[in-house]
Amino acid sequence: LSEVQLRGNRSRTIAWSSVVSTLTGSCATRGHCVVPESEVWILDSSMQVETLTIWGTLKWDITKDDLKLQAGYVLVEDGGHLEIGTSSAPMDLRATIYITKSAHNHLEFGDRFLGGHGSGRIDIHGRKLEQTWTLLSENAPAGTKVLHLKHDPTTMGWRVGDHVGVATTTPHTKNGRSTVHTITSMGQHSLSLAEPLEFEHWGGHREVAGRRFELAAEVVNMERNVRITGDHDDIEATGEGLHTIMTGSGYMDMRYARVEHCGQRPLMGRYCLHFHVMRRCPACVFKGNAVVGSQHVGITVHGTHGTTVDQNIIWDAKAVGLYVEDGNEMDNTFSSNVVICSWWQKCSVNWVGGVASQGGGAFWIGMTNHMIGNHIVGHEIAWWTPGAFRGIGHGKAVGRVCPQFTPFGEIRDNVFHDSARFGIYLDNQFPRNVRRDDDGFLVDQSSCSTHTPEGLDNGVVNEVRNQLDWHNTYVGQYALGDVQYINYTSVNNGHALYWKQSKNFADGRLWHVVDSTFAQDPDDFGCLQFLGPAGPFTFGVSNSAFLGSTRGCYGALQAGQHCGKGGAGGPCNVQYLLDRVDFSGLAPGSINIAMGVYTQSADQGYVLPMFAAKDNSLGGYRSIVSRHLNGFGSVPPDCQLLGPEWGDGLGCGVLVRRLNIWGSDSGRLKLNGTGYNVGPNWAAPTSGRNAGEMKFDSQHGGYGTPALVGGSYSLTGNFNGDLVVEFGDAVLADFFGASESTRVQVGSQTCELRDSDDRRFLTPMGYVHAIGWHLQTVATHNIIRSGTLTCGGGQPDGLTTPSPSFSPTPSGASPSPEVRLPFCRDLPDVKRSCSSDGCKVLADGMTNRACWEYCESAGLMCSGAWEEVDDDCEVKETLTCNSMWQGTSDLICECIQAHAPPEPAPAPAPESDSEDPSAAPSPIPAVPVPSPPADTGVGGAWVQHVATNCYSGHGANGIAGKDPIPSSRSLAACKAECAAEPSCEAITVPAGPAPTTCWLRTDLVLASCLAFDTYDTWVRSAGDVAPASTTPQMSTTSPAQTEPQQPANIYEHIGGHIGSWGGWCTCPDGQRYNVGDNDDGCGSLACVGGIAGPCERVVDSSREGMQVTCAAPLEDIDAPPDADEEPATVAPTQSPDVPLFRVSSFRTQHADGSEVSILQVEGAVARETQGGLATPERRSVYFFEPDGEEVGNATYSGSQWPIVYVPEGAFIDLATGILVDVRQNPQGVLLLAGRPAYQFAGDADGNAAGGHLLGGGSWSWFDASPPTSTTLQTLPATTSEVPDPADASSWVHHRGLNCWKGRGAEGIQDRDPWQKAVSLEDCKAECERYADCDGVVVWADQFPHTCWLRTQLKLDECVDYPEYDFFERVQAGAEQQTTRAPTASPTPAPAPSSSGDGGVDGSTDPDPAAVGPGAWAQHRGLNCWPGRGAEGIEGRDPWQGAGSLDECKAECERFDICDAVVMLADQDPPLCWLRTELKLHECADYPDYDVFERSAGGGAASEQPAAT
User: What is the overall mean pLDDT for the chain?
Assistant: First the structure.
């Protein structure tokens, strides 16, 4: 019959034996046989045909043994079905499909294949094995023929005669092999083999440092009763055998079959087992199969989703064992497979997917698939996910996927060992919220981006659980982000974990590695060295242990691998956070941590990484920084130089965090401040970084260095375009339980950089290939623009900040403490001097140490190194500075002073490419609104007048002592200050959402105030204050007739039942508050009367205990308040990101029944103190009488009287009427009236006060002052009352003034600074001990444990500097030097100068000078440039021909249009800048520069250049 006739027959079921006996066509003559679509053929005898095409059904007779189907190819067509057994009735007898060489090709599948397409179906179900593999339970020595197994072979379904493979457990460096053997007999949990083992194979568990690990060889069964095989006589030469494939809408379900001599390596898509572009196919299954001796990929899933690949054995698959091909594949499960290469070089071959090194036991493009319980052994790479290498996908998916960013499936319980290179290798994977269709293709290309359109982190966090890697050269990855290793185990690998780049988690979790173990048997392969990543982020390791020995390595945990280089993270100031990390299992002499890796001595990774812990993971230190940063050694409390077990670092009790600057290359920048107050060491690897030199990381587009929490810094350099500055990480601050910040000054502006600052559009990846980003700034960033720092988050330009702790000298002036440069006489461990200058020495202590290291320890650079003959200076061998000489304890080293690279030339005006006023370093407020909105916050109703400035002569007068408020205040605190002042009618604040200073105003005439973009004025309502004059905006109606005002929402710390999970509550007035949950597992928010948003199951300490009670909306208010009713006193609110610390009063009774008002506190640090466990809940506080002998120090030790600590950076809320002096000592202990405060453990709640007069009268309440006024202070505060000095001197307080060498005063030797002060009085008393002491400099409005004594005072030459106050000493009989008012702030008020040429209020007033030809007026600390008060003169911007200031002036006088010159302050300039179109009131305060203003009649002009 013809094929057409066969396809046309009616439906019937017939046996192949009858078909072949009756047919005379192609089937009978071994031609091209076709099973018609309407027929079911039963294969009851062997079939040999040229090709077989199945349109109908071919069923194998499962009762017949050893049947064989032989053909050039077997094709199941659309609607066809090949069935060799079923799940319920498998083929338990022998069956073979044999694919022969053939000249016949199929258009789609080529030649020599078993395949199907369309709706075709293939079912192959061989005899089921309960387990296809097991592990050795005991070691099997070389030569043995007996294997002891973890599972019983009979129960697993194994049989005598089966071939089994035994995986290698010998590292590739010792040429171990996996081998194949034949079972001759089986016992319970044992096998006997025909062939002896060639190598030892491990079994059971091995012990390292007391911990047991199952490091055992896999034993795999490679025999199946159903075989798919074929011709293979030339397979090694051609690389071609059979292949199987399924595509279309049908399925292939193949179980417990053996596929051998398969794969066609020269051809794409010709693999041993292959699901090809089937879209979603849950019926597609490869289970329990054995793929043996393949020339190409073992199992491929390509363009298919939802398949199962389970319990397969893949032996010696060339190129790849398990392949996910294009990158769009999703939801496929690879589980319990074992992939073994008998020798890695056998499987690492060139193939159509890449060269020999681009393969592995598993090779996945696209990660949204499941990898569960697989074992991969003996390949060059066990499992490689080439994110960047195949970053745009493969095949038909190219450009339609981003596999580098696709989320992971479930990854757990995998074991990889004895790989020549990597075990697990999840390289360049950064899973993100990628938007895809059902076929895995992108529907939104932008969803692959680093950020969402709003600038938020687009990452999605995935986990790798229960991974075991052993005997691999590497494990880990180059770059990996938003992936967490949980219960990861690394044993005897060449690198315990290898990682170069990562990031903070998108969901806020901390730990990159948790519950994990890293172990090393020193007698086995490998090295215990976790080479960790770098980059500006927090890398967390928690509840993990290091065991064994670091012998031959440079540290168990090494930070900053290859940072700053291509493929690695950078800048290098990564923060390693350790929690419950146990190094106790390391052998003596092991190294716990190290900075950098050993591959390059000049690597910045040796200098910039830092470690942090709040437990004993770092030996009790809170921070460890590199020993190269020697300036941190003097940070109080002093950081200590540690031993080699801690990487020879500096262990500190203070918190050190990262400071980063993003943007264009601005050359070398200089950071001055805490930790960097030393001379620069230019030797590698320090390269000046110890003195704050910051170099641009061209690989990542930024700068980075460590900085101290609570520190104060200034940054200088030639800034190129906009740069964004950030500090620390919120997750790290949350872990330590308090917000973290530091202060940085750039130009004239200082900003407080907080961990909570806006980080939108910022990423630690920087400008990395295939992950890159372009700097995008937002208004809430901290931005360096035009040479000045603009504060983000709404911080005002006028923020007052403390100075660097080492000196009050600002940036640009020489610090008072002299910086001593290193000399050769400082060299340590000198056994013998070998040169006259002492720089060439025989140095001791040089075991395993190079001369560069020795010289660098003294701040010098190595210039030569030698091994000596016999403890002398005679040279035995010349070495390099990096060389170490084995077996010696001394070397000859020659050291020299390092030389600094040339400094960049300064310019007076920060560069700006924009004339846009929005580029100015102050926040631009919203445009004025015609009807200012009402606000009913602190002190009653308030009306905001946007872009309005009221000051003396323009609509208001200042209130003495509060014009401005002398220390930092929030907006709520400013309103409270005004509410407590009877004459206060309004406050003026810098524009922006969170001003931190204000000016109190009286005599308000709003119509006379000025429009001024950078300031807002808030006016109290008429019902709250009786103004001295009426204003157009103020209501003239009686309080009873006024419209009702929106009452205030109450945002407060409740504690107790309010948790740290939570979210945002929106009140009826639109205000949003970050609140905790009701301690119900995120069941509800502490949101009363508002709309609760989603609850986040993320710990956020800023909302812990916080509840908001929303006020009813206006329509729910029945009537306005009574005219005689006192306005409610509402506590000032603090930012949700700042902890609240409240001091209040409480009425209780003495024993005699009389009432007394005592102090209570709420919000203390919950911690174990030397006096007991403190609680953050409201409690009465007490003082301990014996403390009086040591003011400020808590001396009690026990368990019943916990010491009260103030949270770092807390908002201090003092209730109305609290007039007691409130401070904290340097350790954070609360001081009330100078005494440490304690809680009493016997007080059960805030209504108890039972500790008074206990301990024999040693304990007493703090009496609260009568409630007469409101005082809000930000700790620490300055004492306002000063006793008369012993020598009858009087003291004058000059606020915001700083005097130092060259700027109005000289320092007094050994008292510049003086750091033993306990109070301001101590500073004054110390000054009074010196006849020539004219005054002291202290931090403004702060508790001064440091002060600077000054002599040779010239007060008019001192500099306005808001961070400092100067107390001038006027000795008995002497007169005060100047007329500066002791209580009036000399800092510029928000009022500008009223005239364009009359100077600027404050420090920029010109010196008195006669106005006439050639007259000049000097304006100190002022800078004018284009867009800021002046234009440049072409060809003279700058002018580099000046030899002196007079020559600059003379050059200006040559030009009629020249109004002024700008020069570096107090220097004869090598260059100056000529200025025209001068508007002095628009110039900027800039301490590094002075402006010399030329009078109107000055000089004759001969040239007229253009303005630039």
Answer: 80
Contacts of 600 (CB under 8 A, 6+ apart): 562
CA angle (1090, 1092, 1096) in 5-degree steps: 150
pLDDT-derived band at 119 (thresholds 50, 70, 90) equals: very high
pLDDT by residue (tens digit) across 1048-1068? 778 777 766 787 788 888 887
Q: Is the dihedral of CA 1180, 1185, 1189, 1194 positive or negative?
A: negative
- Confidence class of residue 1317 from pLDDT cuts 50, 70 and 90? low
As beta bridge partners, residue 541 has 513, 578
- What is the rounded distance in angstroms from the CA atom of residue 953 to the CA atom of residue 1390? 13
Report residue 264 CA to chain centroid gap.
47
Amino acid (one-letter) located at 924:
I
Q: pLDDT band at residue 939, thresholds of 50, 70 and 90?
A: very low
DSSP class of residue 449? Answer: S
Q: Which amino acid is present at 1317?
A: A
Residue 1486 phi, psi (nearest 5)? -155, 95
Question: 156 by DSSP, 3-state: which?
Answer: helix
Return the amino acid letter for 336: S
Residue type present at position 1406:
P
Q: Is 518 helix (H, G, I), strand (E, B) or coil?
A: strand
Residue type, 325: E
1073 close to 1067: Cβ distance less than 8 angstroms: yes
The total of other beta-carbon atoms located within 10 Å of residue 17's CB is: 16
Task: Give the pLDDT mean for 791-811.
Answer: 39
Spatial separation of the C-alpha atoms in residues 536 and 563, rounded to whole Å? 10
The CA distance from 1245 to 296, in Å, is: 74
Q: Compare 1262 and 1350 and report the one with higher pLDDT.
A: 1350
Q: What is the rounded CA–CA span in Å between residue 1360 and residue 1350?
A: 16
DSSP class of 817: S
How far apart (Å, rounded) are the C-alpha atoms in residues 827 and 842?
11
* Alpha-carbon gap, residue 185 to 237, rounded angstroms: 37
Task: Read off the pLDDT of residues 1222-1251 as tens digits, 9 standing for 90 and up.
Answer: 778 888 888 888 889 999 999 988 888 888
Per-residue pLDDT, 1247: 84
pTM beyond cutoff 0.70: no
Lowest mean pLDDT among 333-342, 770-779, 854-863: 770-779
Distance CA 987, CA 647 (A): 54
pLDDT tens digits along 538-575: 999 999 999 999 888 889 999 988 887 767 888 999 99
Is the sign of the CA dihedral 1051, 1057, 1062, 1063 positive or negative? Answer: negative
Pairing type for strands 575-586 and 538-548 reads: parallel
3-state secondary structure of 787: coil
Mean pLDDT of 978-985: 84
Name the residue among 933, 973, 978 with its Cα closest to residue 959: 978
The CA distance from 299 to 317, in Å, is: 9
Cα–Cα nearest to 1173, from 1194, 1192, 1198? 1198
Q: Which residues pair with 1019 in a beta bridge?
A: 943, 986
The model's pLDDT over 26-79, given as tens digits with 9 standing for 90+, comes to 676 678 899 999 899 999 999 999 999 999 999 999 999 999 999 999 999 999
Q: Helix (H, G, I), strand (E, B), or coil: what is residue 1326?
A: helix
* Phi, psi at 1445, each rounded to 5°: -60, -40
CA–centroid distance for 1091 within its chain: 32
Do 344 and 417 form a contact (C-beta atoms < 8 A)?
Answer: no
Determine the Cα–Cα distance for residues 1166 and 737; give it in Å rounded to an integer: 9
* H/E segment holding residue 252: strand 251-255
Compute the CA torsion angle 748, 754, 759, 765 (nearest 10 deg): 90
Q: Alpha-carbon distance 210 to 205, whole Å?
A: 12
Longest Cα–Cα distance in the chain: 138
State the number of CA atoms in the 13 A half-sphere of 138 facing the CB. Answer: 10
User: How many Å apart are CA 1322 and CA 1334, to the nearest integer?
Assistant: 15
